[in-house]
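Help wanted!
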Amino acid sequence: MPKLLKDDTVLEQRSLDGGAFTFRAARIDKLGATEYTLVTIAVDVTGSTYAFSDQLRDALVNAVAACQRSPFVDRLLLRVVTFSTAAGGVQELHGFAPLADVDVAGYPVFEPDGLTPLYDAVYASVGAMEQYAEDLYNEDYLSNGIVIVITDGLDNVSQVTPAMIKEKIGNIRRKERMESLVTILVGINAEEYRGELEAFRRNVGIDYYVDAGAASDATLARLAQFVSQSVVAQSQALGSGGPSQAISATI
Amino acid sequence: MTYSTDTITLVGSAHQRAFTPGQDAASAGVVSGKAGGAFAIVSDGCSSGGRAEIGAQLLTAAAERAARLKIAGDDMVQSLLVSVLEATEKAACDVALADDDLFATLLYAIVTPDRAFVRVYGDGVVAVGFRDGTWQFLRVEWEKNTPFYPIYYTRKNVDTFLTVHGSALHTAVYVEHVTYDPDGTAWRQFCTRHTVAEGMMGLMLSLDAGALRDICALGVFTDGVASLPTVPWDNMMREIVAFKSTTGAFLRRRVGHVLRDLSIAPTDDLSGAMVWLSSDDGGGS
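Answered by r_m:
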C-alpha cells in the first residue's frame, strides 16, 4: 500500500449509521486552525471507466495538487473515496486529513471493475461530512464543506435510497452545524445519462450537476481545474456566512 | 505542570467601518527554564490617543520579553513594569513616538509551578478558573472612563492624570467580582473600591503554590469584552470560558463560536490572552 499521508498524520476511525459505513478523520485535538473547509472527492472506478481511468487518476492528482498550492491549504481537510462493487463498495483512499499532509504521488493506480454504488457514495460522502462537522462544531470549530462526486453512469447496486440521501443533505442544512455545504455531481462520459443524473440531483437536493463531456485528455484536465477551483472558492467563502458564489455550474 | 496558551485580538466594527487599525494587542506563551512557566498579556490602546495601536503593541512586546526573562531566570519579582517601561521608552524614542501614541493599558498574568500573579494597569477583565469548574471574573473600571496608562510614569503625565481624578487618594477604581458555580450559577457578586494611587500601582492578584493547586486557568481581557451592547460582561465571560477543549487555538475558537451563536459583532476591539494549567496527574477542569 503506497503511503498517502505524512508519517505523523493520525486519523481516527469513525462509523456512520451504526457501522454501515466507516470513515477516518484527523483527531480534532491535533488540529491547529480555528476553522476548516471539509472536502470530499468521490471517484467512480467501476468497469465502465476502464478506458480513461489513468486520466481520471491524473485529474484527481492534479486537482489535489492544485488545492495544495492554495493560500488556504492550512485550513482544508480532504477525504478521497472511490466507489465500485469490485473494490468493496465505497472505499477510502484516505480520510479527512490536513491537505498539506497528503502525498498525491501515493494515490494508487485505479483498477476499474464492478458495478456502480453511486447512491452509497453520495450518502457516505455527505454523511461522513455531516458527522465530522458536528464533532468539529461541538469543539467550537467553524466549518464549511464541499462534496464532489464524479461518475460516468447511473446507480445500479446501492444499499441506500435517494430518499435517504435527501434526508441526510436536509439534515445538514437544518442543523446548521456547518456554515455552508456545496454538493456537486459531475458526469464524465455520461452524456446518455444526463437526464437521469440531473433528475437524481434535483430529487436528493444536490446543488449542481455538471456535465464534463466525453472523456478526453482535455476534458479531464478541465475537470481537475474545475475541482480545484471549486474547492478553493468554498475555502475562501469560509467565515462569510454562506457558500461560495464563485462555483461554476459548467466545466 | 503543563501549560497551553492562546490569544485573540479582534478588531471592533467601529474601526472596521472607519478603516482604522485595531488598537488592542495580545500575547501569550510558554517558557522553559528552571521550572518553566507561562504568561498572558493584553493591552488596549486609548481610542482618543494618537497611534495607540503602536503603543499597545510595544507595551505587549516589552511585557512579553520581560515575562520570558523573569520566568526563565526564575526571578519572580511581581512587577514587570520597570522592565516594560524601559524597553518601551527605548523603542519609542528610536522612532520618535509621541506621548499619546503610547497611551495604552496593560494587563498580564504570569504563572510558574510555585506561584502566579496578575497585574492590571488600567481597565479590563481578569478570569480565574478553578479545577472544580468554578470561575471568578474581575472587571476593573475607572471613574470618568479615564483609566491609568502605565506610560504616564515615564512621560511625566502623572500630575495631569491626578488632576482629572482630583487626587491620588480619591476613590476612582471599581472592581466588580462575580463568581460562577460549576453549574453556571452566578452566586457571589460584590464590588471593591480602590484609590487612584492603588490603581496606579497596578491592581494585583497573587497566588501561592497552595492556592495555585486549585487553579486551572488565568486570563486577561481588554474592556472590549465588557462593551457588548446586548450581553452583560460576566455572562459573556462565562460563555467564553466554556471551553470544549484547551488545545491549539482554544480561545480563538471559543470566542468565534460565542460571537457566531450570539450574532454579535463587537463595536470595540476585543482582546484576550489565557494560560491553561494542567497538573502532571492529568488534572484540569
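OP: Thanks! One thing I noticed: The longest helix of chain B spans residues 52-72.
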